[in-house]
Design goal:
The protein is of the alpha+beta class. It has five helices and seven strands, in the order H-E-H-H-E-E-E-E-H-E-E-H. The model has no long low-confidence stretch (mean pLDDT about 85).
C-alpha cells in the first residue's frame, strides 16, 4: 500500500518481492541433507567407540555436516514462515520496505552503507546466499536482501549505486 510519505520519495522505479517458496525449498533440501548425514553418522559414532580412529574422524565430519545442515534448514524454515512476503519498493528518492504490516521508509541520505557479501556459486544459489545485501541506515535496524528476493542482484546493484555513488535509479516504464 503506497502512502503519502512514500510518494514524497519521488517517482516509483521498481518493486522487488520475497516469497516463502525459495526459502521453503532451501529448508527442505537442508533438512534432507541433515537427515541423511545424521543417519550415516550414527553407526560411525558407534564404530568410533570401538577404537577405530578413521571412524572417529568420519563420524565427526558427517555429524558436523549434518548438524550444520540441520541448523540451516531450521533457520530457512523459520524465515519461510515468518519472513516471507517482504516488499522492497525503489523510488527515485529512497527505498520503501514493507513486511506484514511493518512499513519503513529510507531516503537515500538516511542510508549509511549498502554492502553485498553474496556467494555467487551453486551452493550459494541453492541456499539464497548468492546475494546477501546488507542495508545499514543512519539510525535503526539494518535490512537484509538475500537471493530469495526475486531479482535480488539487480536490487543490490541499484541500492549500492544509489547510495555509494549518489546515482539515482531511473524509472523503468515497463515494470510495475
Amino acid at each position: 500500500m503506497v502512502n503519502e510519505a512514500e510518494q514524497a520519495l519521488g517517482t516509483f522505479v521498481r518493486r522487488y518481492e520475497t516469497t516463502g517458496s525459495p526459502r521453503t525449498q532451501a529448508a527442505l533440501y537442508s533438512l534432507l541433507i541433515a537427515t541423511i548425514m545424521l543417519i550415516i553418522a550414527i553407526p560411525l559414532v558407534i564404530e568410533a567407540f570401538t577404537g577405530t580412529p578413521e571412524a572417529a574422524s568420519l563420524a565427526g565430519l558427517t555429524g558436523g555436516v549434518g548438524l550444520a545442515a540441520l541448523y540451516w534448514g531450521l533457520l530457512c524454515a523459520y524465515r519461510a514462515l515468518f519472513r516471507s512476503n517482504q516488499i522492497f519498493r525503489v523510488r527515485e528518492g529512497g527505498l520503501a520496505y514493507e513486511h506484514d504490516g511493518y512499513f519503513r521508509l529510507l531516503p537515500w541520505s538516511q542510508i549509511r552503507s549498502v554492502t553485498d557479501r553474496g556467494q555467487p556459486n551453486w551452493v550459494g544459489e541453492l541456499a539464497g546466499w548468492d546475494v546477501y545485501c546488507v542495508i545499514r541506515p543512519v539510525s535503526g535496524r539494518r535490512l537484509v536482501v538475500t537471493g530469495h528476493t526475486k531479482n535480488a542482484a539487480e536490487l543490490s546493484d541499484t541500492l549500492r549505486r544509489a547510495v555509494d555513488q549518489n546515482i539515482l535509479p531511473r524509472r523503468d516504464p515497463d515494470r510495475r
